[in-house]
Amino acid sequence: MINNIDITVSICTWNNADRLNITLNNLSKCIVPKSIKWELLIVNNNSTDDTNEIIKNHVNQLPLRVVMEKQQGISYARNTAVNEAKGDFILFTDDDTDPCVNWIQLYWNKFKNNPDQFYGGPIISDFEKNLIINDLYWLYPSSVIGFSLGNIDRAINTDEAFLGANWGFAKNIFNKVGGFNNQYGLNARHFSYMVGEETDLMKRMQMNGYYGYYISDAIVRHFVPEDKCGIEYFLKRARAYGIEQVLIDNKFNISSYNKIYILYYKILLKYAYYRALNKIFLAHNTKYYKLLYGLEINKGRIEALKYLIHKNMDHL
Question: N or C: which end of the chain has fewer CB within 10 A?
Answer without folding.
Answer: C
